[in-house]
Design brief:
CATH topology: Rossmann fold
Distance between the termini: 70 Å
CATH architecture: 3-Layer(aba) Sandwich
Number of strands: 9
Strand order of the largest sheet: 3-2-4-8-9
Number of helices: 14
Helix content: 40-55%
Order of helices and strands: HEHEHHEHEHHHHHEEEHEHHEH
C-alpha cells in the first residue's frame, strides 16, 4: 500500500509539472482576440524603466477610451493604459503593484463605474492579467484573492483550464476567442494599452433610447476596501490619484431617474479616501450618442473626445 501511494504521489507531481510547463506555453501563445492583454503587458515591460508619468487603470471603459499617445501630445508627458476587461478595484490593486516595480508614475487615473463595484466574482478580472504579469508574488496574490478553491486548482492545471474554457491555442491555430463588440464593429490594438474601435461599412446605429438601466445597487465590501488600499499605495509613493466616472451613452442616461443618488455615493467614497473625482455623466462635454458603439463603449472618435476633455481638466487642475 505504501509503495502504491508513493508511486501515485510521484505520478501527481509529474502530472502537475508537465501540466504547468505545457500550460505556460499555451498561456503565452493563446489569443484573447480584441482584449489584447498579452500585447498590453508585453509593451509595458518594453518601456524604459522610470519613463512613465501617467498610468490609467480600470475596465474596458478605460482601455477603450483613454488614448495615451493623445494625452502625451496635449500634456507633454508619457502615459500608459493598464486597464483590462472587467477590471475590479481588487485587480487594479495588483496591477498597480506590478507597475510600480518598473515605473514611478506621478499620477494614476482610475476609471470608476458601478458595474465593477457590484462584482463578487473576480475570476474574469484576474484571468485577463495573471498569465501575462511577470512577478511571481503578484501572480500569487492575484490567484489567492481572485479565485476560489476550484478555480485555483483549475489555474494550476492550465491544460484543463484552457480546454475547459476553450481559450487555449497554439500559434497559427485558426480557433480564436473573440470579444464581439457588436455587429458592424471591429477593434484593434493601438499602442500603450489603448484599443481602438471602428465601425465597418455595414454598421448600423443601435437605438438605446428605450433601454432601462438600474443604478445605485449594492456595492461589494471587498471592492470598496480595495479602493482604500489603492489610495493608500498612491499616498505611500507620493502619487496623485484621480477617479474618473466614464460617461454612459446619453440615450440610456436620459432614462435614469436616480443617478444623482449614485453620484453622491461616488463622491462620498472619494471623500472617504481623500481622492478627487470627475463624473463625466454630470459634466458638460461634446460627447453624443453617436460616439458610442454600445451602451457604454466609445468609438475611436469618441475616445478622442473624452481624452481631450480629461486632458483639459488635468491641465486646468494643475496635475501637469
Amino acid at each position: 500500500m505504501y509503495i502504491f501511494f508513493k508511486q501515485f504521489t510521484i505520478f501527481l507531481i509529474i502530472l502537475f509539472i508537465v501540466s504547468a510547463i505545457i500550460g505556460y506555453g499555451l498561456s503565452n501563445s493563446r489569443d484573447l482576440s480584441e482584449y489584447y492583454p498579452a500585447q498590453r503587458w508585453g509593451e509595458f515591460y518594453n518601456q524604459e524603466k522610470g519613463s512613465i508619468d501617467l498610468i490609467f487603470l480600470g475596465s474596458s471603459y478605460s482601455y477603450r477610451s483613454f488614448i495615451p499617445s493623445f494625452f502625451d501630445s496635449l500634456l507633454d508627458t508619457k502615459s500608459f493604459n493598464l486597464g483590462s476587461s472587467n477590471q475590479t478595484p481588487m485587480t487594479s490593486y495588483f496591477v498597480l503593484k506590478e507597475a510600480l516595480k518598473y515605473q514611478t508614475p506621478k499620477i494614476i487615473v482610475m476609471e470608476v463605474c458601478e458595474n465593477i463595484l457590484i462584482k463578487s466574482d473576480n475570476y474574469k478580472s484576474g484571468i485577463h492579467n495573471i498569465d501575462f504579469i511577470n512577478s511571481l508574488d503578484i501572480r500569487t496574490g492575484l490567484m489567492l484573492t481572485h479565485f476560489n478553491l476550484s478555480q485555483i486548482v483549475e489555474y494550476l492545471m492550465p491544460i484543463y483550464r484552457f480546454n475547459s474554457y476553450k481559450t487555449w491555442m497554439l500559434k497559427g491555430s485558426k480557433k480564436k476567442i473573440r470579444h464581439l463588440v457588436g455587429k458592424g464593429v471591429y477593434s484593434k490594438y493601438y499602442n500603450r494599452g489603448y484599443v481602438a474601435t471602428f465601425p465597418r461599412t455595414n454598421y448600423r446605429e443601435v437605438d438605446f433610447s428605450k433601454t432601462l438601466r438600474k443604478v445605485n445597487r449594492k456595492w461589494e465590501f471587498e471592492q470598496v476596501e480595495f479602493f482604500k488600499k489603492l489610495s493608500e499605495i498612491c499616498k505611500e509613493n507620493g502619487i496623485k490619484l484621480l477617479w474618473v466616472v466614464h460617461p454612459i451613452n446619453p440615450s440610456i442616461f436620459n432614462n435614469i431617474n436616480n443617478y444623482n443618488e449614485l453620484s453622491e455615493r461616488y463622491k462620498a467614497l472619494a471623500a472617504n479616501n481623500d481622492v478627487e473625482i470627475i463624473d463625466f455623466n454630470l459634466e458638460h462635454t461634446s460627447i453624443v450618442a453617436q460616439d458610442f458603439y454600445d451602451t457604454d463603449h466609445l468609438f475611436y472618435e469618441g475616445a478622442l473626445k473624452i481624452s481631450a476633455e480629461l486632458a483639459s481638466r488635468l491641465k486646468r487642475k494643475k496635475y501637469f
